[in-house]
Every structure is written in structure tokens, then in C-alpha cells.
Write a structure and sequence with these properties.
heterodimer; A: 304 residues; mainly alpha; Four Helix Bundle (Hemerythrin (Met), subunit A); 0% strand; globular; B: 533 residues; alpha+beta; TATA-Binding Protein; 4 domains; 7-stranded antiparallel beta sheet; 6-stranded antiparallel beta sheet; 32% helix; 31% strand; elongated
């Protein structure tokens, strides 16, 4: 007789920590936004006082990440397994990986300017996770009881995080090179333009986005293969065009297109940035709409 | 001979084309070939493939969800035949989806084969000639050096670069004396790229051939039952194109016992299945010794020539039906299909051998409870308080014609309901061990006991291993091609010392660093101020 010990109290504490992290993310997000608006100021004095604010933002983001990480770990302990077996857990773990990669990447590359995006994105994901996806701790259904859960899903989370940062850079690129932003006489757009002027040159952002996306692509390819190996054991075939398999394939194909675009004259720059963005939208679609509304074997949201 | 490099449509239609069809045909096909194998076409085909895959996730597919297709036809009788005509229920084997990926692979082959030849040549040729103006390269450095250092600098640069994995050549100047070192590294980048694309062809072939040789058969077994691995032994069977029955190794499998653990401890997790275990005995026909094993969801059983998987389970209530004279007209354990997580299950019993044919549509509740509306439900998936309810239909069961019928469905179109629903007679309710009277003169039904059943799947696909091998090769290839930098480095003597330069294929942010560190290794005192002449 198999039995399992779940700890809902601990899961409650984990949830509180996640909510606390959301508060700190909010503070970090506001600080970064305020910082950007200061940087965009026409007055030089205001601009020079901004860097301190940025440092405060990064520290807040790091604090949020630590609390967030503690919440993720407690969730795992409360369920006595890896904390990524349903949508809620995937969301909290995935967004934790995003912020971790971002903070680590800061030590290598100067990508501070997308901090606003990262803080805002994590806030959004955690907010959705806490209000829509939340489920109490559950045991794993027999089909999920495999070490492939650790490998397959962890790599998928990592890939998603890299694609996420790639997409953030693509968005910045698209705005920075947009004609309407460049030409508009509206005051709001002018402020926005000054913020964009602080970002690295478009070519540099394009290269950075490419670096994040190629790592994402390699990890995503691995996710696909690991998923097929697991499916061969659990579902007696390595590939069966299950809705989730279909979307994993679609995403892989879009990013393969993105890689080709970067080597095709006339497709670099704006078009490839759009492709990176379409790829990431497909990932979000795969995670939300496909999980919740499409029929298939990957029904792990835990929601009714 | 006029071969237009980019003929427009009007070129194709013009009279000249008709006058000299052979030449224009050659020109035309050469143009098509060039277009097809261009990077832009590959890119567009990839995007097209992504878009074409979408409908397969929106509409139910015959391969993944045949019942969904049937249900779609029932719910949309007008639309479904139209969708079917354009193969939207078989997207991944459809003509249009196949056309896209076949074109993509032709494009891939046309692109990769010439590149393989070029790369093969490049692998055996010496590094390029050192450019005259190194200052034009993206990374460049001038270093002053004494005559003594200049005399040995080329040799030590060549040695150093060779150690770093470069292919190196010392090249002579106009006067015939050694003047520069030309070095190149990162041939693996293109090798990886080619391996990736060639492996994708391998994946496609392995999927195709493996699928053709594969088969899978499904069988529902109640505890105590057994089946033999031949076509008659399966409830349903899907063979690949090249399958023949003699490929089936004759073995038999019996289900001795089926166990399920449901969570009884954790409030938030109550009734969740923790483990399914099918205890089986397998015996290869002709061999005497039997083998016992436990099959779990993630742990299939290896049998000669195939694997045995556990794909489903449920309850099989044992019933005995007797006519008014006490003759047994039906006896056995019938698999009921689970309808919910709490194992409320639906079963159909057909009694063709009675004097008057009749059928039962029955619900089974493992732990029964009554809702406020009066409807019954199951609270827990294990049989703590099992109850069976039945509606009874009399009339033509429709099985005398000999046509195969779904054993899990009762076609009531030619039948009359005599118990349950709006028939005016209450539906039957039975607990284990009870016997109740059937309406009219149909006799009695006894709920003898409860067994479980397991859905088993025998699968064989020899392509799987090769798909995996080629996939892993492709993964290794693409990783190499994306991460290995390819660059050329030159060291050249000049009047006051020497200069260094580097050029990369694609983006390489480390290029300046490569040049700077090489300079400082060749002349340890190289200062930063000397950089970027």
C-alpha cells in the first residue's frame, strides 16, 4: 500500500511567502518605473539622481527573489516532490527561474534596463497563479510518477525563462526601431522615446536577444526529446500529436524559423524580433489556453 | 540559350518558351530548384508548417482521439463532412501537411548537400591568405616590438594558436620570407550545423520506416482472464503499413490481480490515485516456464517482440441473469467504463440468449451517496459502499446481423425502455450479493461480486530507438553549431613590430578580447594604450 504525506499547513506558509514576494516585486517594479521616468527627464539634475534608485530597485528585486525562492522550496517540501506538477507550481517555479537567470545575467551583461519588464512580468505571473491557478497540494497521478518529471519539466521551465528574456529584448527592439515612436509629436511618446534612448543600440539588443533565444532553443529541443522518451514509457508511443505535443512542435518550428531569419537577408532585425515575440506568445498560449481549454493527455492544471 | 535567372510568370507563358521547351524547362526547373533551396524558402516553409500544425490541436484527430471525432460528427452533422473533406481530422497525415514538410525536406537536402561538399573541401584546405589591410578587420591591434622579438614572433604565435585549437599556416611575403600567420578555428560550427540537418532527415526516415513496421493492439482484461498475442486476441488493433500477422510472437498474458491505492490520509488529496499495479503472468507459447511481473503506468513489461503497457483500469461487476425458469441467460464480469475521478462507471449488458432479447444500461457507484436533487454520485473511488443501478430495455439488440457492435454502447433505437427513466417503472438498484426481479417476465439479476479490469496495450515500434539516436545527434549538432565560435586570426609583421587581427562568422562579442589576450601572451608588456591603432 503506497501512502504519501502532504503538508497543507506548509503549503499555506509557502503561499504567504509567494504573496509577500508579490508585494516586494510590486515595490521593485514601481522603483524601476520611477527610475525610468526620472532617466527620461529633460533636466540633467533629475537624471543624475536616478542611478541610486536603480540600485534600490535591484536590491528589492533580489529580496523578492529570495522570498519567492523560499516559497517555491516550501511548496516542494509540502508536497514531498518537485514543485512543478501543476499550473500553479509551474508558474511560481518558472517565474523564480526567470528572475534568477536575470539576476545572474546582470553580473555578465548589462541588461538592467529590462528590469522593469522582469519585475512586472513576475508580478503578473504570480498574481495569476495565486488567484486563478492556485490548488492545494496534491500527490502525483501515476502517469507523472517518473524521474522524467524532474528532467523534462525543469528543462522546459529553463527554456521558457530564456525565451522570456529574449522576448523582452525583442519588445524593446521593436519599440526602439518603430517609425511611429521615432516620428510622433505626442508628449507621452516623446517621454517614451527618451526612455528608449537609454536602451542599448538596436543591433546590440538584437544580438543579446539572439543569445538568449539560442540557449532557449537548445533547451526547448531537449524538452521535446525528453518528453518523447517519457511518452514512450507512459503512453506507449513516443509521439502521438497530443495537443501539448503539437504546440511544443509549433513553438520549436517558430524558433527554428527565427534562427533561419537571423541568417537570411531581409529578415534580420525587425522581422526576426517579431518572430521571437510570436514564439513567446505561442509559449504563453501553450501554457494557458492549451492547458485549460484544449483536450489532451497533458491535463495537469489541477483545476476543475 | 536564354536562361533567365528570375523569370517572371509572363516569361513562362511567352511564345518563346513554347518554341524551345527543353531549354526553358531546364532554366525554369533550375530556377525553381534555386528558389526551393534558398534560406528564405526554408524559413517560409518552417513558418507555414507551424501554422499548418495548429488545426490539429483545435479539431479532434482520428489518430489521437477517435471518439472525439465521432462525437464531433454527432454534434456538427453539417460541418463535419466538410472539415473531413479537407482532412482536418487527419491533419498530420493530410496531403497539405505532408506537402509542406516534404518540400521543407527537399529544400533542406538541396541546401545541405552542396554545403557538405564545400565544408568537406574547407576542412582539408589551408587557412586563407592573410589580408593585406588587417586594420579593416573588426578586431585589430598594433604592437611595437624589438627586432629580437620580431624574429621569433611568428613561430611563437603559430605555436600558441595551434595549442588553442586553430588550424595554422605561416605565410610568406612578397620577398619569400615568412611574413604572417593565418589561423582559423571553429570548423565544428559548420560540422554541427550539417550534422543537425542531416540528422533531421534520419529522424524523418526512422519515423516513417518505424511507423510502417509498428503495430499496437489493445485488450481489456478482467482479473482472472487472459489473452493470446494474435489478431483475434485484441479488442482493437492498429497495424503499420508493412505489418503482417506472423510478426506477432505468440505469447499469452493473464491478469492475476489488479491493485489500486487511493489516498485516504490527506484531506486535500482524498481519493487521488497513488498507484496502479497490474499483476500479470506471461507465457511464451511453446515454452514451459511462466513469468510473473507487475506493470505500472510508467513501467511497461518487456515481452519478446513488444512491450506491454497499462493504459487504463476500472471496475467489472459480476452479474448473473436467470430467466423465470431459473436458466442462466447471462453470467460474467463486465468491464464498466469510469466516467469520473471517483469512478462512477457506466456499463452495458446485452442478453441476446433470453427468450425476448433485452439489454441493461447500468451505473456503478463504488461509494454511493445521494445528492440533494436525488441523483446518485460516488464519493470515493474505492468500493466502500458499492451500488449498481440499471435501466432495462427490451427489443432488437441489433447484433444478430453479424456486424461488429460496440460492446460499451447499447443502440436503443429499436428497443423499448421498461425500467428506469420515463418508463414508469423504477430503475433497479443492487448491492453486492443482492438479487432483484427484472420487469415483466425477464427473470432476475444477481450482483455476485466485484472485480477490476485493466486496459492493456501491446506496442511495437522498431523506429523509436533510431528516432532517439538521430534526435540526440541533431541536438548535439545544433548545440555545437550555435555555441562554437568560428573565427580567423592573423598575426603579421610590420616595420615597428607586429599587428594582430580577428574576424568572426556571425556575432562574436569576445573578438576584441581574443586579440588582446593573444597580444599580451606574445609580448607580456603589451599595454592597453597600444590597442586599436
Amino acid at each position: 500500500m503506497t501512502s504519501i504525506a502532504l503538508n497543507p499547513e506548509l503549503a499555506g506558509i509557502s503561499r504567504l511567502l509567494i504573496q509577500a514576494a508579490m508585494l516586494v516585486y510590486t515595490a521593485a517594479f514601481l522603483t524601476f518605473a520611477f527610475h525610468l521616468s526620472k532617466l527620461a527627464s529633460v533636466e540633467k539634475k533629475v537624471r543624475s539622481s536616478a542611478s541610486k534608485l536603480e540600485r534600490v530597485g535591484i536590491i528589492l528585486l533580489a529580496i523578492a527573489a529570495v522570498i519567492h525562492g523560499a516559497g517555491v522550496i516550501l511548496r516542494g517540501i509540502s508536497a514531498s516532490r518537485v514543485p512543478w506538477a501543476n499550473m500553479y507550481e509551474f508558474s511560481i517555479t518558472g517565474s523564480f527561474v526567470v528572475v534568477t537567470i536575470f539576476l545572474l545575467a546582470l553580473t555578465i551583461k548589462d541588461i538592467r534596463l529590462i528590469a522593469t519588464f522582469v519585475a512586472g512580468f513576475n508580478l503578473l505571473i504570480l498574481g495569476t497563479a495565486d488567484t486563478v491557478f492556485w490548488v492545494n497540494v496534491k500527490s502525483l497521478m501515476p502517469a507523472l510518477q517518473s524521474y522524467w518529471l524532474v528532467i523534462h519539466v525543469l528543462v522546459a521551465v529553463l527554456a521558457t525563462a530564456f525565451f522570456n528574456i529574449g522576448a523582452a529584448l525583442a519588445i524593446a527592439y521593436i519599440f526602439k526601431t518603430a517609425k511611429w515612436v521615432e516620428k510622433s509629436k505626442l508628449k507621452m511618446v516623446a517621454t517614451f522615446r527618451r526612455i528608449l534612448a537609454l536602451f542599448p543600440a538596436p543591433e546590440k539588443m538584437e544580438r543579446l536577444a539572439y543569445r538568449f533565444n539560442i540557449i532557449g532553443f537548445i533547451l526547448w529541443s531537449f524538452t521535446l526529446i525528453a518528453g518523447a522518451i517519457w511518452a514512450e514509457r507512459a503512453w506507449h508511443r513516443y509521439w502521438g500529436w497530443d495537443t501539448k505535443e503539437v504546440w511544443t512542435f509549433i513553438i520549436w518550428t517558430i524558433y527554428a524559423g527565427y534562427l533561419h531569419a537571423n541568417a537570411t537577408r531581409g529578415w534580420t532585425g525587425k522581422r526576426s524580433a517579431w518572430l521571437a515575440l510570436v514564439g513567446f506568445v505561442a509559449i504563453l498560449f501553450n501554457f494557458t489556453i492549451v492547458n485549460l481549454f484544449f483536450k489532451g493527455l497533458h491535463v495537469y492544471s489541477g483545476l476543475k | 540559350m536564354v536562361i533567365s535567372s528570375s523569370p517572371s510568370k509572363s516569361d513562362f507563358d511567352s511564345n518563346e518558351e513554347i518554341k524551345s521547351p527543353q531549354l526553358s524547362l531546364a532554366g525554369w526547373s533550375r530556377w525553381i530548384w534555386r528558389q526551393l533551396t534558398s534560406m528564405k524558402t526554408a524559413l517560409l516553409l518552417l513558418l507555414l508548417l507551424a501554422v499548418a500544425a495548429v488545426p490539429g490541436s483545435v479539431f479532434p484527430q482520428r489518430s489521437a482521439d477517435p471518439n472525439g471525432v465521432t462525437a464531433y460528427f454527432d454534434n456538427n452533422p453539417g460541418l463535419a463532412p466538410i472539415l473531413d473533406a479537407v482532412q482536418l481530422f487527419d491533419v498530420y497525415t493530410s496531403a497539405w501537411f505532408s506537402a509542406i514538410y516534404i518540400l521543407l525536406f527537399i529544400s533542406l537536402i538541396g541546401c545541405v548537400l552542396p554545403r557538405t561538399a564545400v565544408h568537406f573541401k574547407a576542412l582539408r584546405s589551408a587557412p586563407v591568405e592573410t589580408p593585406r589591410l588587417l586594420s579593416r578587420m573588426p578586431a585589430h591591434l598594433k604592437v611595437t616590438a624589438s627586432a629580437k622579438l620580431r624574429a621569433t614572433i611568428l613561430d611563437s604565435a603559430a605555436k600558441l594558436l595551434k595549442k588553442q585549437g586553430y588550424r595554422v599556416q605561416i605565410q610568406s611575403g612578397a620577398d619569400g620570407k615568412p611574413a604572417s600567420v593565418s589561423a582559423e578555428r571553429g570548423y565544428l560550427r559548420e560540422t554541427g550545423n550539417l550534422v543537425f540537418h542531416l540528422s533531421l532527415i534520419g529522424v524523418l526516415v526512422a519515423v516513417g520506416v518505424g511507423g510502417g513496421l509498428s503495430y499496437s493492439g489493445q485488450r481489456v482484461l478482467v482479473e482472472g482472464e487472459s489473452f493470446v498475442n494474435n489478431l483475434a486476441g485484441f479488442d482493437s488493433f492498429s497495424p503499420g503499413t508493412f505489418f503482417s500477422e506472423d510478426k506477432l510472437v505468440p505469447f499469452s498474458v493473464s491478469l492475476d490481480k489488479f491493485e489500486v491505492d487511493f489516498d485516504l490520509q490527506n484531506q486535500s488529496n482524498l481519493g487521488t490515485p497513488l498507484d496502479f499495479r497490474a499483476f500479470v503472468t506471461s507465457r511464451v507459447v511453446g515454452e514451459t516456464d511462466a513469468r510473473t511481473a507487475v506493470i505500472r503506468v510508467n513501467e511497461p513489461l518487456e515481452l519478446p517482440g513488444s512491450k506491454l503497457y497499462l493504459t487504463g483500469n476500472g471496475y467489472a461487476p459480476q452479474l448473473t441473469i436467470r430467466d423465470t425458469e431459473g436458466n442462466i441467460t447471462y453470467q460474467g464480469a463486465t468491464p464498466f467504463l469510469p466516467q469520473s475521478a471517483k469512478y462512477t462507471s457506466l456499463g452495458v449488458i446485452k442478453v441476446p440468449d433470453a427468450k425476448k432479447q433485452f439489454g441493461l444500461i447500468a451505473f456503478f457507484y463504488p461509494t454511493v451517496a445521494e445528492l440533494e436533487t436525488g441523483a446518485l454520485t460516488s464519493l470515493y473511488p474505492a468500493p466502500y459502499d458499492p451500488l449498481l443501478t440499471m435501466n432495462v430495455y427490451v427489443g432488437d439488440l441489433g447484433i444478430d446481423g453479424g456486424a461488429p457492435k460496440n460492446v460499451y454502447a447499447l443502440d436503443t433505437s429499436k428497443m423499448k425502455q421498461v425500467a428506469g427513466g420515463k418508463s414508469g417503472v423504477k430503475g433497479l438498484k443492487l448491492e453486492v450479493g443482492q438479487t432483484v426481479k427484472l420487469p415483466g417476465d425477464l427473470g432476475t439479476v444477481t450482483f455476485d461480486g466485484l472485480k477490476r479490469f485493466a486496459s492493456l496495450d501491446v506496442s511495437y515500434n522498431p523506429g523509436g530507438l533510431w528516432v532517439l539516436v538521430f534526435s540526440l545527434l541533431a541536438l548535439a549538432g545544433v548545440t555545437t553549431s550555435l555555441l562554437v565560435p568560428r573565427r580567423r586570426v592573423w598575426v603579421k609583421l610590420n616595420e615597428s613590430g607586429f599587428e594582430l587581427a580577428a574576424l568572426a562568422r556571425g556575432d562574436d562579442p569576445t573578438l576584441d578580447r581574443v586579440v588582446a589576450s593573444l597580444a599580451s601572451e606574445l609580448k607580456p608588456s603589451t599595454s592597453k594604450t597600444e590597442s586599436k591603432a
